[in-house]
């Protein structure tokens, strides 16, 4: 269990994130060597104001760029994102922001 501190609207909140419940692309039986805990601004009530763990070592390095334009992703990378979207019910823009720490570059 990790404690994660967030700031929302000037209020600081301590949240818990369970490393065992990370967003994973690889089977959960493998060890996650690089996990990141993030909280993002989103309209999705299921993840809003929550500390989420994502296993970055499961993902291709090219998906972990600081600025990611989803319109230029390879078919393989799109499949990775689609698979994660389906498994965790998170939209692609929120998923990209969780992975990179930055909003997607594609215009809405």
Report the average pLDDT across residues. Answer: 76
- Percent helix range: 10-25%
**Order of helix and strand elements from N to C terminus:** EEEEHH
- Going across the biggest sheet, name each strand in turn: 1-2
CA-CA gap between termini = 36 Å
Main sheet properties:
2 strands, antiparallel
| Overall number of structural domains | 1
Our estimate of the beta-strand percent is 15-25%
Content-based structural category? alpha+beta
Low-pLDDT segments, ≥5 res: 1-7
List keywords for this structure.
alpha+beta; disordered N terminus; single chain; 2 helices; two-stranded antiparallel sheet; two-stranded antiparallel ribbon; 108 residues
Architecture overview:
The protein is an alpha+beta fold. It has one domain. Helix content is 21%, strand content 20%. The chain has two helices and four strands; from the N terminus they run E-E-E-E-H-H. The strands form two sheets. The protein has a two-stranded antiparallel ribbon with strand order 1-2. Strands 3-4 form a two-stranded antiparallel sheet. Strand 1 and strand 2 form a beta hairpin. The longest helix has 14 residues. The N terminus is likely disordered.
SSE inventory with pairings:
Layout: E1 2-8, E2 11-17, E3 35-38, E4 52-55, H1 75-88, H2 92-100
Can I get a quick summary?
By secondary structure, this protein is of the alpha+beta class. It has helices at 75-88, 92-100; strands at 2-8, 11-17, 35-38, 52-55. The protein has one domain (2-100).
């Amino acid at each position: 269990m990790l404690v994660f501190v967030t700031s929302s609207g000037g209020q600081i909140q301590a949240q818990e994130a369970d490393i065992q419940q990370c967003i994973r692309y690889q089977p959960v039986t493998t060890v996650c060597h690089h996990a990141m805990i993030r909280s993002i601004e989103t309209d999705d009530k299921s993840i809003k104001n929550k500390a989420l763990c994502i296993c970055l070592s499961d993902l291709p390095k090219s998906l972990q760029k600081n600025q990611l334009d989803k319109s230029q992703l390879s078919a393989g990378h799109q499949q990775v994102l689609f698979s994660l979207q389906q498994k965790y019910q998170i939209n692609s823009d929120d998923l990209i922001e969780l992975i990179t720490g930055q909003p997607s570059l594609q215009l809405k």
